[in-house]
Each structure stands twice: as C-alpha cells, then as structure tokens.
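subagent[fold] <- orchestrator: predict structure for attached chain, return tokens only, no commentary.
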Amino acid sequence: MNQRDDKALHGGTRATLLVLLLLAFALRLTNLSLQNIWWDEARNIDVALRPFWQIPNAPELDIHPPLYFWLLHGWSLLAGLKRGMPWEVIALASRYLSVAAGLLGVLLLYQFTRRLGSRQAALLAAAIGACSPFWLAESQETRMYTLGFALLLAAALALEKVIRDWRLERDWISHRSPIFNL
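subagent[fold] -> orchestrator:
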C-alpha cells in the first residue's frame, strides 16, 4: 500500500469515526427532555447545586466520592443553573454532562480498541458504544456512570501506554547489552 492509499484510509477512518460520534450525540439527545426526573437524578442535582465546599459533607454522599458532584456543580455553574428554576430546565441542562461523558467514552473506546487491535475493530467497538441501549440510557440521566466509564477507559489507555513503554524499554535494554538481558 502506498502512502497516498494509507492517508486515504486514515481519512476514511476519521470520517467514519466522526459520523459515529455524531450518531452517538444524536441518539443521546433523542427524547432527552421527555423522561421525568427520578429520585437519584433529583438527589444528584440537589447536591450539585449546593455551595462547592458543602458537597463532600452532604449526607447523601455516604457511599459516593464527591468528584462527580463537583463536576456537576461546575457544569451547573457554566449552564447558569440555580435553585428556583423550573426542574425541567435544570434536569435537561444537567443531563448534558452525561451526554458529554458518553461521547467521550465512545471516543476513548475507539482509541483503546485501536491500540489493541485494528482500525476496523476500533470502529466496530465505537459503533457498538454509540448505539448500546444501556449506554444510551445512562447517557440520558444525571448519574455518574458514563463519567465513570470514560474515566475507566482513560485509565486503561494510560495503563496500556505504561506497559507498552515498559516493554519497549525492556526490549531496548536487552538488545543493547547481554548483561541486562531479562
């Protein structure tokens, strides 16, 4: 394969990935405002709308670390959300953090699968992630699961890089000197 064909392949892969991300975004926005707020979402929004330093001491967080709630707090500030606004507006704007985390997760899933396999496998993984009913449902709620999955994928990418770098260094040392042959 010549260099021009390889660039075309990369361009086609990028275009396909972009289409998958747009599909993932569209699916996550579909009916985003139609579902009612349920208990966990209302609790998460209520905690996030408190002053920043009150969040880690909130009794509702007895089993949850505060990171998600701090992020939701910042997201709420960026969106201009305040107590007293209609709950439908607050819920819709708050859910966009999960939509964004879901999109980030699809992109990270592509990158992780690409590092471990082929472009085709990575695109297939991204397509599955973009359309997964469970992941879609979680991306439409003010919950921490999509953010947790994106962080888990980011950690997996970092671990894969550390392992790859370690192997390269080990191989380099073992080829340079028989003393260090591992």
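orchestrator: received. Logging for downstream: Residues 105 and 158 are 14 Å apart (CA to CA). Helices lie at 3-29, 39-48, 67-79, 87-116, 119-131, 133-138, 145-176.
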